[in-house]
Prior knowledge:
Chain A: Residues 135-186 form the RNA polymerase sigma factor 70 region 4 type domain. The complex is a heterodimer of chains A (204) and B (287). With 204 residues, chain A is mainly alpha-helical.
Amino acid sequence: xxDRSNTSVLVxxxxxxxxxxxxxxxxxxxxxxxxxxxxxxFDHDLAMxxxxxxxxxxxxxxxxxxxxxxxxxxxYTIAVNYCRExxxxxxxxxxxxILSRSGGEICHESIDLQSHHNNAYDPEKSxxxxxxxxxxxxxxxxxxAEQKVVLIMKEYEGLKFKEIAESLxxxxxxxxxxxxxxxxxxxxxxxxxKINKEEINYGx
Amino acid sequence: MDPKVNKEQIIAYLYGESSxxxxxxxxxxxxxxxxxxxxxxxxxxxxxxxxxxxxxxVTQPVIMLDHGRRANGPEAIxxxxxxQKAAAIAAVIILxxxxxxxxxxxxxxxxxxxxxxxxxxxxxxxxxxxxSGPKTNKLSLNEDSMQQLQASxxxxxxxxxxxxxxxxxxxxxxxxxxNKKMQHPVAKVSNKATETLPRDMEALARQISQQNLQxxxxxxxxxxxxxxxxxxxxxxxxxxxxxxxxLEDLIEIETTLKVLKQESELDKLETDEVIxxxxxxxxxxxx
Lengths: 204, 287
């Protein structure tokens, strides 16, 4: 990952039409933005699509970025906007692929979000089948989008509350509050699915 | 929640973003409040678990950047599609002319004909071949010798011709005799046929019309059955579609309601806390 000063220099060059500099920025940030999108949708294809859109939009608008230091936050802002747009378009009809037992690799099996609300869905059985990450992914997919975005930005992207607040154009306290309610909602969902501390190991 | 320690401060402490003074205050608060401490502990555990979701390795694909949209000023003019097309057409014309020059192409149109030549400097002949029929090869032979040839051919074939004529005459007489012999029975047969033909034809026509009628009615029946089956299948498909749609809608509504319920519960919690804090602030001011 590039440090701040290098990033600023590259952003400056890219804003002046240097495509080589922009390519370096893409190389440095592609994985992060992809993973942000992936944790938001838990869908490889959608994450790839959103990441592509994010960088294409960034390339188009990088000249408008006044504060070069804010590049990373600005990039996340674009990504979040595309995620929201996608949510608006397809809403909750999206199907979330789950992780395979081997971990990390996406298997072809998929679970409809709506099926969680059916009585037929048995979280205990599902837990036996899937790995912990699969369960957490499904739980994460169920919390409100605003809270999920903050949670991903903080937990996986390691952004400071100040950066999150700037990216989402909210106050730092709102970001913290959303994270608090996000964690609380996540815990509640896991409790509802009868996944206790010992099983998920979140108490240790 | 204690007015001096709120959930934002606890979250900041959880993520190591609180000041030293704030951290001490939160720690003291958590020691005093076991419920908050349990929640904090659960959050810490949850964070550990969340970190078990791995980052996905991804290969960066080629991103097609749209340079055209970013260009401005003179660059944009050169990058405009119209100019690019015009330049392409001009290039093709230049290339064509260059090739023509190299191969010495010479094209001329006139007198309702198009002439093409590939050798520079060589004048195109002004006379052009106009459309005409195939050329006739004239074989000029002497008239006397032709007559002599005809006479010798006739002489050579004369006996053969004589024999053929005789054979033809004998065959003709044989055919006449046979005709006479056959005349009587043929006349009898033809008389009978003219009597029976109208009756048979009438019966045949009646039979054909009956068969046609039967076939037509069968066709109608079959088509009616097919239509009925098609309409039935249409109805069943439509009812199945309606039922599926209804189920999907119900699931959607249920999902939305649950999410709404969850969100409103969270909002209620937040509101309650704000009200509690307000009341506490008012109370603190009163005392």
